[in-house]
Design a protein that fits this description.
Number of helices: 7
Low-confidence stretches: none
Strand content: 15-25%
CATH architecture of the largest domain: 2-Layer Sandwich
Order of helices and strands: EEEHEEHHEHHHEEHE
Radius of gyration: 24 Å
Oligomer: single chain
Structural class: alpha+beta
Length: 237
């Protein structure tokens, strides 16, 4: 019978699952599989499971309860094993790695930080700071020759890359001292940086304050978004 896996803990974790239900409609009953000094919180995996809001919320609520009672290796929504024996086999095979990670995550949560520039403001910065860019911009207005426009495009692209990379390094440098571990992610969309930070409970206020200070220093041309505290998905492995 397929098994849905929510998280892995040490077998000393209380794993109090009362008044919690799992994914599915009707909700599946939660239970724990214990072996090799570890515990996996699981339920039956319902057929046709999709990322519906009700199921995403149920998955998150299980993780939040477990995290409130001790270190947890959270699995992302949709982790399914063939049966109980497969889960117990994985616990046995990965026991040393899982114990190491549980120790590293003890007392920590994850913060995801992303930042993006206002594109028009960034272009204005480049034109303000580069005499060559201003000259080429004026030349494109006065001449049908495509070469100045091409050179301006290249200069602007290089300027954007240099500024965003510098800002990304600054963000990571400013926030890393308040984190136990840092993972740099591939930014998407208009974001120029995306970083995951593993933050100890007694450093969360320092971390949020550092992010707020950086956002204030950068001003309204740059938007810094802080998501968290979150289950430490980025630091499971």
């Amino acid at each position: 019978m397929p098994v849905y896996v929510y998280a892995i803990t040490a077998d000393t974790h209380p794993a109090r699952l009362q008044r919690l239900t799992g994914v599915g409609s009707p909700p599946e009953e939660l239970r724990a599989l214990t072996g090799s000094g570890l515990r996996a919180v699981v339920s039956h995996a319902p057929e046709g499971l999709r990322a519906r809001r009700r199921d995403l919320v149920a998955h998150q609520e299980v993780l939040e309860r477990l995290m409130s009672e001790g270190p947890v290796l959270p699995l992302r929504f949709g982790a399914v094993a063939t049966d109980d024996q497969e889960v117990l086999g994985i616990l046995h095979e990965q026991v040393h790695a899982y114990r190491e990670r549980l120790s590293a995550l003890d007392g920590c949560t994850e913060y995801l930080v992303k930042a993006s520039y206002d594109e028009d403001a960034l272009l204005r910065q480049i034109l303000r700071d580069s005499a060559e860019a201003r000259r080429l911009n004026e030349e494109t207005r006065q001449s049908p020759d495509p070469q100045p426009k091409i050179r301006l495009g290249e200069l602007v692209a290089a300027g954007i890359e240099a500024r965003t990379r510098s800002a990304a390094v600054e963000l990571l440098d400013e926030l890393s001292p308040a984190a136990r571990e840092v993972r740099e992610n591939d930014p998407a969309g208009n974001d120029f940086v995306s970083g995951s930070f593993l933050v100890e409970a007694d450093r969360q206020e320092d971390f949020r304050a550092a992010a707020a200070e950086l956002a204030e220093r950068w001003g309204e041309d740059c938007t810094v978004r802080v998501h968290g505290p979150l289950p430490p998905y980025s630091f499971v492995q």
